[in-house]
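Running co-folding for zinc ion.
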Amino acid sequence: MPITKNSVVAFAYTLTDDGGEVLDSADTQNPLAYLHGHGQLIAGMEKALAGREVGDQLSIVLPPEEAYGIYDENLAGAVPRSAFHGADAVEVGMQFQMEFPGGLKVVTVREVDGQHVTVDGNHPLAGETLHFDIEVVSIRPATKDEIEHRHAHGAGGAH
Ligand code: ZN
């Protein structure tokens, strides 16, 4: 069966950036599973996978606008350490919610010094052109639960 809306698809992939550095991967033994047609993957990936069959291999290149967005400098900057008065410790890699003109955003701590904390509200892959090499490992119809939850269950799925 080809991949259509409400297919549960398992796929292996290698994700590399423009420089060829591997950012993420899953092999055919431990593929990633998703429910097709519910926005679980970024739109460009779902579009490329639609209609594919088990065993199909494809390579796609997604510019930032079709992946995790353009890097927005307004979402990154240094804030006084005192702004984190509620937190016991502030360390690189920790995530906090912060108020932005557009509402609350999750920011990741990039740097901490004596008085300042540099935070970044961009997705870690914002600004990156993504290169995916994909192999479709399996395709099956979704269960009722999966369609209700809007994600895939079982190996490689959500839970
Ligand atoms: Zn579920």
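Result summary
The mean pLDDT is 93.
The pocket of zinc ion is lined by residues 149, 151, 153, 158-159 (CB under 6 Å).
Job closed.
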